[in-house]
UniProtKB/TrEMBL annotation, chains A, B:
<dbReference type="InterPro" id="IPR029154">
    <property type="entry name" value="HIBADH-like_NADP-bd"/>
</dbReference>
<dbReference type="InterPro" id="IPR013328">
    <property type="entry name" value="6PGD_dom2"/>
</dbReference>
<dbReference type="GO" id="GO:0051287">
    <property type="term" value="F:NAD binding"/>
</dbReference>
<dbReference type="InterPro" id="IPR015815">
    <property type="entry name" value="HIBADH-related"/>
</dbReference>
<feature type="domain" description="6-phosphogluconate dehydrogenase NADP-binding">
    <location>
        <begin position="2"/>
        <end position="160"/>
    </location>
</feature>
<dbReference type="GO" id="GO:0046487">
    <property type="term" value="P:glyoxylate metabolic process"/>
</dbReference>
<feature type="domain" description="3-hydroxyisobutyrate dehydrogenase-like NAD-binding">
    <location>
        <begin position="163"/>
        <end position="283"/>
    </location>
</feature>
<dbReference type="GO" id="GO:0008679">
    <property type="term" value="F:2-hydroxy-3-oxopropionate reductase activity"/>
</dbReference>
<keyword id="KW-0520">NAD</keyword>
<dbReference type="InterPro" id="IPR006398">
    <property type="entry name" value="Tartro_sem_red"/>
</dbReference>
<dbReference type="InterPro" id="IPR036291">
    <property type="entry name" value="NAD(P)-bd_dom_sf"/>
</dbReference>
<dbReference type="GO" id="GO:0050661">
    <property type="term" value="F:NADP binding"/>
</dbReference>
<dbReference type="Pfam" id="PF03446">
    <property type="entry name" value="NAD_binding_2"/>
</dbReference>
<feature type="active site">
    <location>
        <position position="169"/>
    </location>
</feature>
<keyword id="KW-0560">Oxidoreductase</keyword>
<dbReference type="InterPro" id="IPR006115">
    <property type="entry name" value="6PGDH_NADP-bd"/>
</dbReference>
<dbReference type="InterPro" id="IPR008927">
    <property type="entry name" value="6-PGluconate_DH-like_C_sf"/>
</dbReference>
Amino acid sequence: MKVGFIGLGIMGAPMAGQLIAAGHTLYGQSRSGVPQALLDAGATACDTAADVARNADVIITMVPDTPDVAKVLFGEGGVAEGLSAGKIVVDMSSIAPVETKEFAKKINDLGCQYLDAPVSGGEVGAKAGTLTIMVGGPEATFETVKPLFEKMGKNITLVGENGAGQTTKVANQIIVALNILAVSEALVFASKAGADPAKVRQALMGGFANSKILEVHAERMLKRTFNPGFRIALHQKDLALALASAKQLEVALPSTAIAQQLFSAVAANGGAGLDHSALVKALELQAAHTVTPEA
Amino acid sequence: MKVGFIGLGIMGAPMAGQLIAAGHTLYGQSRSGVPQALLDAGATACDTAADVARNADVIITMVPDTPDVAKVLFGEGGVAEGLSAGKIVVDMSSIAPVETKEFAKKINDLGCQYLDAPVSGGEVGAKAGTLTIMVGGPEATFETVKPLFEKMGKNITLVGENGAGQTTKVANQIIVALNILAVSEALVFASKAGADPAKVRQALMGGFANSKILEVHAERMLKRTFNPGFRIALHQKDLALALASAKQLEVALPSTAIAQQLFSAVAANGGAGLDHSALVKALELQAAHTVTPEA
């Protein structure tokens, strides 16, 4: 398949690499140029996003935020300029659900199909081809693109119409942040009450308190290994998106707002680059106590 | 073993039943008398908690709240009056960790041992003998009582010294409440954004957002089956305990406070007797939207 890939950064480059390795013809374009490793593997560098769209049948975008997608698709020299009827645009960035529906409509108006297909799993998942991919869009289009998704990810779900993929990603980031907050409040409480937080975690893992976060992130808190992982600065971006979208949709997210403020507290103390499990530090500051297990 | 059991309500009666079935001699006392079924099975009814303590070697208490334990142990005709050196008091109620340490010290001063051993798993777990039991106290005492615990529960952990069992139970109730809140915010957001909340839940179950609560309680939200389960009124009691203990310990629990307020909002709308997954109704009220899946 002739695939275009716009945005070849930390996530995009390994994802594009998986597609080339699977035998697809790849046309790339990125703000900082196409990485040499991809060129060596056979990728063709294009000057503009429009050129990518002229050459490829499926055009994937993987850029930081909603305005970046808007610019890459509809700005000067953008994808829209190079599209012709029947092509497919797949936005794998994590951006706003509401704007995504507008982008899809504008692409549809050009006689093309649109999928929103944000991922989770980070750089590790991108390199291993094990990303979770949450997709919104028409089922037929999903089936056409699925062989590409299957090279980049493992857990691939068509959730609903355009916007549903981005909505699911936001829901994911809300739950992950709040489950980190849940574990943080519980462990700081338990530790300050004099219990060994490591044993408390162990006792809770069999019951209703169990979660992927209790398994993975609580251990990072106890071992004080806050190297990312997933950076607080990125989770702050995702929760900003959640809270802005919630305002548009008229939904109140009280605990998400708390989590965002606590991330800001950790960032204010120099922790923006730490793993998001370092949210616990905000509660530790407030309690003047660290969740250190007994030896 | 000669076992005393004080508090033979919804939880205590089936727990005591497991002990009789296992061949232990049971001395019972309860505010509303010893249930006929236990008497038929061979239990001996005592007039006072002191009498229970005079007859039994291990005295278990299972009553609603901290003041009830104080009264049953140290009030007139209470356990302390009937204790003699070498006996063991096991409080399986869910009460305050700080007061628990005081109770243990007073029992120790009488030459006796104390375990705090609160449970989770509810009436269903009590009847099936599959409770989770979180224990604080001396290891030797734990080993002595373990054969009794094994008749009442499955997942039995000695977490630490006296108070650690109650601390773990509080930590459990904090995480469960906040994971319910996490799923509630995510599903109300997703549903109001136009995605099918059932499909969003399905897509999230493979990744970092997964939890026992996403598996069990999110399904209750989607199916609108809010019959308990675990009543909001009881979870309100547990979070009140968490917040009061946190104040004593100087720990800030911002999101636990939010969850408590949202439980109050559901209770204000007549929902105190609903399952705690009905917390979602507070967010639905605020968003004027219900998380109804597509047909």
